[in-house]
Amino acid sequence: MGLFDFFKKKKQENQETLDKGLEKTKTSVFDKLARAVAGKSKVDDDVLDNLEEVLITSDVGVETTLKVIDRIQKRVARDKYVSTSELNNILREEIAALLAETEKNTLDTSQGEDSGVPYVILVVGVNGVGKTTTIGKLAWQFKQAGKKVYLGAADTFRAAAVEQLVIWGQRVGVPVVKQQMGSDPASVAFDTLQSAKANNADVVLIDTAGRLHNKVGLMNELKKIKDVMKKVLPQAPDEVLLVLDGSTGQNAFEQAKQFAAVTQITSLAITKLDGTAKGGVVIGISDQLKVPVKYIGLGEGMEDLQLFDRRAFVDSLFKK
Asked: Residue 98: is its pLDDT beyond 80?
């Protein structure tokens, strides 16, 4: 089984989890759309103005909203008459097309499969977004797929972070490489990769500190971790995964911009979408950063972390 194939199984169950997880966002969007087209039979300037407000207040973001509105305006101008009953399908198509443009930047994750070299994921994100939980769930799913997984506790500035990762390691049944509190994070990463390589691991997940108050310090720390990794595995890290809390809406977008300013981000995991009406943030963050959303968190269960499927996401969002 390929490295990420486990996530693609059980498509029907995944769709049910997605529909349930997006329920609050979907209800919010449909309620707003209903008000936006009330008393209107065709999409005109008033409807477009109202639609702009719907998207912005659904945390899609201003710039991405303007892109979507521009696309719809062009369709209305081309087709002359577009009924308000068609608006859902048009929105679905245009948002899916927007996400498809970002998908072109997705890494080829098949390159490290069955090569005998561990696939290394460096995980970043501020404290409280579900970073360590996401690592634990990824470790579990990779292990279920028959992969040998190693975890590295490189967030050495918080004892709780190391302890939490150790608990996840015990729960999942995978080794966790750690050092004393306050140790050099790069040293932990080095030890983790050495152990993983020596024991023929398939996947390595490295946790990092979630501090943004000192951008220069964070940038230097992440650069050092990457440099030290390359001494063990020249291609490492294969992926830099930024974890964001979807329930914080535009705050998640601001965090994403700040992390993107200090290190290259190659993929996104957006968590806690099941408890919020702000699921539209997935669309805006992906579009504005030009970084693909790879995972979405839709609940507390191990399998509630899913590979992001843009078509399934948009279909679920606009499914009546």
From this structure: yes
